[in-house]
Design a protein that fits this description.
Blueprint lengths: L22 E8 L2 E8 L3 E7 L2 E6 L4 E10 L2 E20 L2 E14 L1 H9 L1
Antiparallel strand pairs: 1-2, 1-4, 1-7, 2-5, 3-4, 5-6, 6-7
């Protein structure tokens, strides 16, 4: 007879959260840049405005779409992200415009594909 304890399996990794924790958001327009958000499973609460900037938070959410445009001279760069709740702190920013909190980037697109992803939802 063996006196060794039975083998145990390592604990499974915790599943990702299905509802996100608070994100802080600065959206709107500044010279040369725009950033907009679309919230799924919650809402973007604006807590303050200064000029064309809106400061706020997203308290409860299941996914957030972000589209940012940066203009350098006559050229424009468009980027799109779809983020879902995650355990790691992240930041998506274009100048002073930003989304900050714990999330995982599920989809990222640029150029024409960014506009198509934003328009498709």
């Amino acid at each position: 007879m063996s006196t060794e304890p039975p083998a145990t399996e390592p604990p499974a990794a915790a599943p990702p959260p299905t509802t996100g924790t608070r994100l802080t958001v600065t959206s709107g327009n500044v010279e040369g840049a725009t950033l907009r958000v679309r919230v799924h499973g919650g809402q973007h609460d604006i807590t303050g405005k200064r000029g064309a900037l809106a400061h706020g938070q997203i308290v409860t959410w299941t996914a957030v779409e972000i589209i940012a445009t940066a203009r350098r001279g006559s050229a424009a760069t468009v980027r799109y992200w779809r983020v879902v709740p995650g355990a790691t702190a992240n930041r998506i920013a274009e100048g002073p415009l930003e989304v900050v909190g714990a999330f995982t980037i599920e989809v990222q697109r640029s150029g024409t594909a960014a506009n198509e992803a934003w328009d498709a939802r």
